[in-house]
Amino acid sequence: MLSKKTKYGIKALAYIARKKDRKPVQASEISESENISQKFLESIMLELRKSGFLGSKKGKGGGYYLIKEPGEIRMTAVIRVLEGPIAMVPCVSLNYYEKCDDCPDEKTCSVHKLMIQVRDASLDVLGENTLEDIAFTQ
Amino acid sequence: MLSKKTKYGIKALAYIARKKDRKPVQASEISESENISQKFLESIMLELRKSGFLGSKKGKGGGYYLIKEPGEIRMTAVIRVLEGPIAMVPCVSLNYYEKCDDCPDEKTCSVHKLMIQVRDASLDVLGENTLEDIAFTQ
DNA sequence: TATAATCCTATCGGTTTACTAGGTTTTAAG
DNA sequence: CTTAAAACCTAGTAAACCGATAGGATTATA
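^ Those are the sequences you sent over. The predicted structure of the assembly is below.
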């Protein structure tokens, strides 16, 4: 299950991407428009800034803005930062690999190969969709 | 992330499927062979029985056995029972649908369409794999 | 009758989630 | 220079969930 954090983060990025001008967008505006708790959203925006998706400007008239073009932001990257691994099991994760305690050998594990297939299917979808693709969906 | 419950459940089903005869398999045997806490596994086996995947026989020489052929058990069904929804967001779940609090309209939600794609990709994989497919993977 | 198995209920410590509170700092506008 | 508006930061917290564990009750076999 996708956490609310990730969901809100994606919505916020999409909201910013939808604006034509590149003027900073305030968290308060996004929180109102997208029905997200403002304080919670603030912490998410901060994380998106620290991980290089957003820039920010402080003070009056400040806000957040995209650093890259929406078309260059793959959803895999966004989800990995906000949610963590895309794989359903750590032992098939490309970016967050962890060995299972119980499995003596991954090659003979019945769950392993199945989850690799699921992972690859998800990666295909999330890797082909960019922020631009999802921002202008309607 | 797949819960351990689901992971253990799949492993247990695969273990039983691998046996040629249809004699009941004890939870204790599975728990030893697959390195799963016995008490925890017991509760999982019970759930698998109540949901119609397994039959059971009590008392000495008892255990659990498959009710259907492994080739007839789709992994979608197993995961839905043990884990719940396959979708990453309730609002795109086929079997566990729930409306989002924040979304006024799913059709204009940027997350929605993306998650439908992910869901469908996962469903493809999990629907095409049966217990037989994953039990005899090596 | 002893033993081995499932079945059942309850509990529990730890972690995560989704916030909330309460500020500090920076900047622009008046 | 003052005020307001914005990001930034730290901490805490209630609730839910997870992965077990405990302790037995029930049932069947030998």
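Chain B touches chain A at residues 1-2, 7, 10-11, 14, 34-36, 75, 85, 88-90, 101-104, 107-115, 117-118, 121-122, 124-126, 129, 134-135, 137-138 (CB under 8 Å). The domain at 4-66 of chain B is CATH 1.10.10.10 (Arc Repressor Mutant, subunit A).

Shout if you want it in another format.
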